[in-house]
Amino acid sequence: MEIERKYLVETPPKHYAACPFRRIEQGYLCTDPVVRVRRDDQDYYLTYKGKGLLSREEYNLPLTVDAYAHLIAKADGIVLKKLRYEIPYEARDAQGALRTYTIEMDVFEGAYEGLILAEVEFETEADALAFVPPSWFGRDVTFTGEFQNSRLSSRKN
pTM above 0.85? Predict the structure, then answer.
């Protein structure tokens, strides 16, 4: 189960470029249900995601580089490319305990150059709903679905 909140970022924090990052490329074989192939640096996955906005089922299966190359060529729409920065952030969970979360900030390249989204994953929906984001986060787009990667891949640019 994946439980996450997603935010549109207009002004990223100044220190983000010093944080660790990964290069991601992903394409969608299907968007209903979501079936995605992803290259995450030198790792490759086939992912199934169920329906939902705040929480949904997610299953990841490893792929070989050859299997990934075969499947990404069959992707519908835009193949998304982004750098994913991992930014630590302390906030209180639903029980009031201080926790360190990892903000995954995606800086898009290619078709969505300039788009920046931040995601935070949680252990429970209560923690997700209690989350107070840092001041540099922009609009919460979790419940609109408009910035789900599967939707971005099918937009015409």
Answer: yes
Q: Any idea which residue has 């909140």 for tokens?
A: 5
Q: Which of 7, 16, 28, 101 is catalytic?
A: 28
Computed on alpha carbons and rounded to an integer, the radius of gyration of the chain in Å comes to: 16
At 117-126, the pLDDT tens digits run: 999 999 999 9
3-state DSSP assignment of residue 25? strand
End-to-end CA distance of the chain: 32
28 part of the active site: yes
Rounded to the nearest 10 degrees, how much is the dihedral formed by the CA atoms of 35, 121, 63, 27?
40
Q: Which two tokens stand for residue 154?
A: 């099918």
Tokens linked to 54: 């705040």
Distance CA 149, CA 36 (A): 10
Give the Cα separation of 151 and 32 in Å (integer): 10
